[in-house]
Write a structure and sequence with these properties.
alpha/beta; six-stranded mixed beta sheet; 12 strands
Length: 436
């Protein structure tokens, strides 16, 4: 099973290592025009056929989506002609694909990654779709689906939260309590270290997990609005608010697992499985490493603690995947019907049968089959005031892959020289965000 960008097994690396090569292709228009619409012009113009560009190349999501499209055909009489490409290839060529003759509908991601193509005129507003499906989603999910112009461009299907994971039995045995403030978190880490545990499991070999740690400290310290401004290149990395984030992180860093830059997220997760670590900050896909049912039943999580009282714990990092409508769909009427169906609880129920590590984006989806972790994840997301998408989706992928990933790895190795690091980030940001 895969999660994340593709929605299926090994989400982290599958979703994020590809971004090192994607930056120019996605954000700067450097893609190779190999990804093209399927079915030919006659199929695409058939009123009973909607073409769909899919990045769901792995077995689990591919099968789940096929079942969704079969159910849609049964309901509407419209066939979905699916153009599936390798997940990484899809991302690498998405820019040139959308500028050419794309399929009517295509898989993509919420938030900034959606807004980028909407602003370029490479997607069609779908406010008419949202008039039908709007009641199915919480306000935070609606906000994630809007472009900078205020129009809707995205239909979300599934999501999952980032949180601090722990073993219930370890907390019970040691008498630990779930921290709700920064000071309580630091005190807990100190106690765990005294008890011979690695306080926080950590693996950043693939360079993306540290992005999540930065996000949590940043929006807990400075709030959602500042996070959005910073990720969009509008706030300065030399702002004292950003320096505060790294000062706090430096305070917590000694409680992270040593040698993180040489360790995968999967190996770090094993220290939580074996009860050698007390905590692990990651997405719910960490549960994939708990292959024994008793261990999985012992897994629990809590929201990253409050740092600034004004912002509390009202923001949740919840990467969200779904669909968009291309710039000039050949069968717009059919595509609109498909998007309305994809935004329904029925479509989400079909997908969730195949992937238990994600939760429905809709508040009206059937949650009766959810595991305890899914139920808790669903409650966390649906109750959030704000949802973020993870740094590599909330910002330009070329910026996060070429600037932020190496900068954070350097910080993890040696948390000194923060001011010079932030000055370097700001200089590079200005250059990258000035590009078209």
């Amino acid at each position: 099973m895969q999660l994340s960008s593709s929605g299926l097994s090994s989400p982290g690396p599958a979703r994020r290592t590809l971004l090192r090569g994607v930056g120019g292709a996605v954000a700067l228009g450097a893609g190779i025009p190999l990804l093209s619409a399927c079915g030919g012009s006659s199929a695409a113009s058939d009123p009973k056929t909607v073409s769909l560009g899919s990045n769901a190349s792995d077995a689990v999501p591919k099968k789940a989506f096929a079942e969704i499209y079969a159910a849609f055909r049964k309901q509407s009489g419209i066939t979905v002609d699916v153009n599936t490409k390798d997940h990484n290839t899809f991302q690498e060529q998405i820019n040139s694909y959308l500028q050419g003759t794309p399929d009517d509908v295509f898989n993509w991601f919420a938030g900034y990654r959606m807004q980028f193509f909407a602003a370029k005129g490479l997607a069609t507003p779908i406010d008419d779709v949202w008039q039908k499906i709007g009641g199915n989603f919480p306000d935070a999910m609606k906000a994630l689906s809007k472009g900078e112009d205020g129009n809707h461009y995205f239909v979300p299907l599934y999501t999952y939260p980032w949180a601090l994971f722990y073993r219930k039995s370890v907390f019970k045995e040691k008498g630990y309590e779930v921290p709700t403030t920064w000071d309580q978190l630091v005190a807990l880490c100190k106690q765990m270290k005294q008890d011979g545990l690695v306080p926080i499991a950590f693996g950043d070999k693939d360079a993306w997990p540290a992005l999540g740690t930065f996000d949590q400290i940043n929006f807990r310290t400075n709030g959602y609005d500042f996070h959005v401004e910073l990720m969009a290149g509008k706030a300065s990395w030399t702002d004292a608010k950003v320096r505060k984030v790294f000062d706090l992180w430096a305070e917590l860093l000694p409680y992270h697992q040593d040698g993180a830059v040489g360790r995968t997220w999967q190996d770090a997760a094993q220290t939580l499985v074996s009860k050698k670590a007390g905590l692990y900050l990651l997405g719910t896909f960490v549960g994939q490493q708990f292959t024994d049912k008793a261990d999985l039943d012992d897994l629990d999580f809590f929201a990253f603690p409050e740092i600034t009282a004004e912002f509390g714990q009202d923001t949740v990092e919840a990467p969200t995947d779904g669909f968009m409508l291309s710039k000039v769909p050949k069968n717009k009427a059919g595509a609109v019907k498909l998007l309305e169906y994809l935004g329904s609880p029925a479509a989400e129920a079909i997908y969730l049968k195949a992937d238990s590590s994600v939760v429905a984006a809709s508040t009206k989806a059937d949650t009766s089959s959810y595991t305890p972790l899914q139920k808790k994840a669903y409650e966390m997301i649906s109750g959030a005031k704000h949802l973020t998408q993870f740094m590599d989706r909330d910002s330009r992928p070329d910026f996060t892959s070429t600037v932020m990933q190496p900068a954070l790895q350097k910080f993890i190795r040696d948390p000194k020289g923060i001011d010079s690091m932030l000055s370097s980030i700001e200089r590079q940001k200005k250059t990258i965000f000035a590009a078209s």
